[in-house]
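Write out the 3D structure for:
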Amino acid sequence: LKVDGQVSGLHCLFADITWQKQSDQALRESEARFRRSNERYQAVQRIAHVGYIDWELATNKIELSDEALEIYHLETSPTLERLVSLLHPEDKERVEKSLNTAVSGGASHNLEHRMILQDGTEIYVQATADLIRNDDGTPVRLLGTVLDISRRKQAELALQENEKKLRGLFEMLPVGISVLDKERRIVYMNPGLERILAIDQAGLLRGAYRQRRYLRPDGSPMPRSEFGSERALRENQPVFGVETGMELEDGKTVWVSVDAVPVQMGDWAVVIVTADITERKAAEAALREGEERFRLFMENNPAVAWMKDEQGCFEYMNGNYERLYGIKAEDYIGKTDDSLFPEEIANEFHRNDRLVLDTNRPIEVIERSAHPDGSLLYWWTYKFPLTGREGRKLLGGLAIDITQRIQAEEALKEKNRELERFNRLTLDRELRMIALKKEVNELLRQTGQVERYKVHE
């Protein structure tokens, strides 16, 4: 500038600030990258439902991420004491011990535990944390994550409860449950199998049952290839109701019914259900024996025996009718008297049947039937009510052919009638002779003569 204040010239100074502009641009880009990274981190937390926890050790200040706040149902980061108060009482000691170990530089904190939120809701979380040190190695903070695993734990607990119930059910079942692996070794069995096979768990696992002799239902030896488990594995399909006898060490025979289903579940190859049917087999044998005794009795007694349902259809007829008259018993089954006998005889049978069924009392009666040759037969018949399964009304009957007796009785009656006629004729003659003798004696008296006949009245 001049003395009068006029500008006489201009001096300019220039400084290179390229590095500053580049630094500012780098800072802005870094801040943008940080925002993007933080946004992505926050998004990952929301998507994975994972929050982070920052515990500043010197001040015990706790900072929770938004997702961690949402997990704990908090609006702001709590104090350390407040966060600890949310621990489930049964898990508190275990969590504090793990955190202290992490703070002291030991193992990282990694635990599944329960929290009780402000509204009383119980949640499960998986918490992890690592110790952060400064440059001189001093611990300064504990950084960690928290993941809400409530749904998974609830599913696990439900599964455990179901497994517990299922295991309890298997242990209570009266049948034997066992699982074999591909080498035919028992890998699981319930107490029911031990009871049925009379072998303890150690013996079953050792394969003691393999030393026994096995039987088919007919009593012949059963080879291993016919076992239910072997068939299921060989045929690759379920096999049901394989009846098998086992000869025990004490000489007794236990009968079982085996169901076997092939499976592909890890080391499981076949699941076997073993039911003790020894009592049933004994009952069946007793029933067969009883039925055979009944058959022999019914087939060898002199009576014709039958059974009808409430509608009058024959359900049983023994073989005596066929032996006596050549009519097969099976020709009666399912038929009624109306289709087998003349109307008059069928009606008589029906009346007597209804009397028994309606009064529920037995009767004895003489009935008639027609012989195949057309002659009439007479029967002494005993009819009685029976009650079948589910309360079905049945009628049983026994009849003995008394035709010869009836015929003999009729012949005797006829002879008696003839004798009566003869006696009447003889009596009339005797009476006539007495009258004549009286008349002769009277005439002799009238003529003064001595009576000639002695008369006994």
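The chain has a mean pLDDT of 85.
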